[in-house]
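[job 4471] stage=fold_predict status=RUNNING
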Amino acid sequence: RSFRHLLSRGHAVTLVDEDAGRICGYVLLLFSQGTSMARLYSIAAHPDFARHGVGDRLLEAAEEAALERDCVSMRLEVRRDNPPSLNLFRRHGYRQFKEVLDYYEDHMDALRFEKRLVPHLKADLVKVPYYRQTLDFTCGPAALMMAMKALDPILDLNRTLELRLWREATTIFMTSGHGGCGPYGLALSAYRRGFDLEIHVNEDGVFLVDSVRSPEKKEVMRLVQEDWIEELRRLPVILCRGSLGVEELRQKFEAGGIPLVLISSYRIYGERFPHWVVVTGFDEHYIYVHDPLVDAEEGETIADSINMPIPHREFQRMARYGKAGQKAVLILYRSNRRSKPAAPSLF
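[job 4471] inference complete, writing structure tokens
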């Protein structure tokens, strides 16, 4: 059933190698809407055509198909006990970047590989550790944790911290279920832990308010935000009215800052909900982000969410949320205050 779904889905491509009407093999590719990364989900050759170069032809065709969709990289997982496949990908220039223990149903480990399909693009990436959000509403805390860890490697990332940050920064309400996190609450959490930061917003309205309909909920969100802003104004935090373009983000990044950006998830996941990502690098054509969300229901893995390449123009379109096109960026910097972080009391 899952394979049939992948064959018919809009963001998947299946290529078949044939010989005199016989199917020699196939390769199945998955594409993420709004990003420039392809995932090789499955590749196989019929035993009758082993050692006939079927795998090489399919892989080359897959890379061409990915390039036609403006993808700059291909990622995949391979079983550790599958030497023919490992040799195939290594022969074609794929680089192993991670090992995942107990990945398959039979507990076999997986090796993750990646290949940049456009060799001349060399992203100036920083080493931002990846942390996957564990709940639907904790993208903000997860993104903040990654940024803080990049600036302070000794920071321990765990679910306790994720939930603590959410409690500190939640807007309380959202469309359904628990509330998300706005820029001001996340900024306060970062400052309390000893980081310097800048806040860039394009308006003074209540952030994420378009995610609720009830006037009572809107009022609660307004009061929460006003309280955050009042506290921030008493602190040495840079609060700017205006939006940052890709080039300005890059300048902040090169100056040592780690940007967190609020986006609309529609251009990636096809659903209109606010979402936080952390910027990990730039090159001439693309901006790279860690996305804390892994869409497992669509067959994605952590490999799909690490250093996701997004074209500059596409990123500008998605870096806003709601009918008002609200924009928010937090820039975290290393600070001397980190030696004695003032974490908030829980009581």
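[job 4471] summary: The mean pLDDT is 85.
[job 4471] exit 0
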